[in-house]
Every structure is written in structure tokens, then in C-alpha cells.
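U., I forgot to send this yesterday:
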Amino acid sequence: MTKIDNGLMLLLGGIFGVLIIASAIGSILSLWYSGAKRSATIDNLNARIRGWWMMCIICVLAVIVGSVGSVILFTVMSFFALREFITLTPTRRGDHEALFWCFFVFMPIQYVLIGMQWYGLFSVFIPVYVFLFLPVRIALVGDTTRFLERTAKIQSAMLITVFALSHAPALLMLHIPDYEEQNIKLLLFLMIVVQMSDILQYVFGKLFGKSPIVPKLSPNKTVEGFIGGILASSLLGMSLYWVTPFSPWEAGLMSLAITLMGFIGGLCMSAIKRDSGVKDFGGIIEGHGGMLDRIDSLCFAAPIFFHLTRYFYT
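Result:
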């Protein structure tokens, strides 16, 4: 069980307080613009809020259980994200055995290594050993059609949805002086800043957005939304310094780094979807699309945040 202190209680209370306010606003908008006046935007907003309630409740339960619960939660998230990635980038029959290894051997091992706090192997297992194993296993089948393309797809899927994402629960293995048994707050800090950056970029883009950053890739991402969302979420991260081992300015700089990486992650995942001709990776979360649609920013932000924290604070 996680030790729930006043700081963690206040942080969780703030999260659910925001959700309650958002739910109230969504209900008011639905009543105000009832019937024919009600727009798809309001319906989408309420669907997203319901999705956030579900995700936050699951995350809180994992936090209460402790490090084991957090590792299991991210293992499940990786499983669904990997499935969506592979589904969207089809492979051939000859790749099925390699995929079996990815889903049922390599992914569990990666998270077991985190649970064991074995940093030396966790940090190289997928980018070295799995990376080298996959092309060999696929080559042994004898199917050479688009061999490099197929291998690269599976390697990229493992690196993004398993290796990169696993750096989030890996925060729990860090030994930070004067911050013992509080790492769960560091994980929550990362998730809050990254997800709020996505939301704030969306809000600022809807309110003030006029100039698309990459029109052909993601026309809804604007310069105004990017600047407003990044600055606002960095300030939010700075205001949450008290749940981290950082000073206010350090928390702000950390937040800036992970929000920039989150933005890059969103763009890269959008490129994959546009190339495949789809809007979302899936539909597992109401109002949010697939699992990978919700954690694309986190996949790119988590490794940077983990290694910056490990290098400067342990």
C-alpha cells in the first residue's frame, strides 16, 4: 500500500475537484444548449470528461495499491497501445511468432525488471536485445516481402508503446535523497503536467487558434494553442513543485521539457495515423479514441523526465 500523506491527499483532491467542476460545466452546457442547439463539440466534451473520470479512478486505485499496482496498470496500458499500433500498421502472417514474443514474453519481462528495480537491464533490454532478436526471428520464417518495413514497424511499436512508456512507472525505482517513499507523487506530477498540456493546447487552440503549425499533419494544432498550452502547463508544473524534489524553477523547467516532448509525441503519432488514413488509433476510451491516442504524449515525455530526474537528483 502507498503511504498516503497530506501532500498526496491534496494532489488527488485537486484532480477530482477539477473533474467535478468540469462535469458541472459540461452538464450546464448540455442543458443550456439542449435539443437542436446542442453541438457535437459539447457532446464530445462530456464524453471526454466521462473518459477522464474512468481513467482517473483507475489511476488512483493503482496508486493506492502501490508500486505493484502502478506497474500492472502500465503493463495493461502498454498491451492495448501495442495492439493498436500493430493493428494500424498491418504485418504479415510470418510475423505472428515474433509478435507473440513481443506481447507475451518481452513486454512482461520489461515490466518485471522495473518491479525488480533492475535499472541496468531494464534500460537496454528492448533497445538492444529485443531490437536485435526481432529481425532474426522474422528472417527465419523466410518471408522477405517488405522485410525491412515489417521489422521496423514491430521494432518501433516495442520502442514506443513498451520501452518508452515503461519509463513512467520506472520513476518509482529512483532513490532520491530526502524524497524516500514519495516517488508516486513524481509519477502523478508527470501524468498531470503531460495530460493538462494536451488539454490546454486544445483549449487555447479552440479559443485563439488561427495559424496551424503543420497543416498537412494536424490542422487542429495551432501556434496559438501550442504556445498557450505549453506556457500554461509549465506554470501549472511550477505551482506543483511542492509534490516533487524540485525547486519552483526546476519544476517549471522540467514541465517545459516534458510538455515539449509530449507535443512532439503527439505530432509523430498523428503522422502515423494520417499515413494510415484514420482519425484515431482505436475506440477503447469514450471521447478519447484509443489507448495510444491518450498516451502518445506520455510515451515521448516519460523517458526524458525519467533520465533528467535520475541524472540530476539521484
